[in-house]
Amino acid sequence: MNEYIDDFIEYIIGARKYSHATADAYRTDLEDFCRFYGNFVGAELMLDHFAHADTLTFRSWLADRQKRGLAFKSTARALSALRGFYKYLAKYKNIKNDAIGIVSSPKIPKKLSKALDASDVADMRGAIASLDNDEPWIAARDWALVTLLFGCGLRISEALGLKNSDVAGAPSTLRIVGKGSKERVVPVLPAVYRAIEKYVAIRPFGNEPTDNLFRSVRGLPMSARMAEKVIEKLRYYLQLPDYVTPHALRHTFATALLSDGADLRSLQELLGHSSLSTTQLYTKVNMAEIMNIYEHCHPRANEN
Fold this sequence. Notes:
This protein is mainly alpha-helical. The protein has 15 helices and two strands. A two-stranded antiparallel ribbon has the order 1-2. The mean pLDDT is 84.
């Protein structure tokens, strides 16, 4: 089976643009399944075996991984790798198996925080340069979008709704129209404007004052789905968690401000929340950090 796995790995790197790190992880997952399945059927695996694997086979493999103490997240990724392999086999090797689509992924315990580390955001710049090195203006656009979402805490719809006239002259604040046509004013860091100015300077079209700031490859206004794909591409490249989305950059902005002492009312204004109770959800993240510090540092925290 190694030759088929090799072909699949070449496919996801070449055609699907997966990172080598992801491809290596998928190879490990597929080899793990092949070892298990070979023992399960008591024979050397052939390609036809993959057509006859049933839900019992797949669930037994998942149970075996749990027995070995492998993390739920790791097993979820392994199942995703196997599903991808089956899609490849169906498309290119005429091997079909509907049973793999019935098996549910293991439940991954949800973490309270959905924020990124600041280092992850910084790493996105290098990733963008690598992924878009053939199109400098696309690289500049993507970095401008990331810095705007992270630096100002905007919703993706708010960022994509900006016009060239909104950022002309690099004003120190932006007037944002949010949900329910509610307006708010947000400060803008110089680093955000530098990224925007670099993008605007080399953008090939969409330079009229009334044009949308962010443009697609074809010169049309950038859609929310296009922006999501930008972050998805970075997520795969940097091997970041599934929760890394454009909204996660806004969440990171809010969490960072609260952790550094911002009060809830100010944060509410910056985020454009109509209700303070929505903003208060971020205090759960902060309280989790406080409790962790308490449990590790307070001299009486471990007393019964």
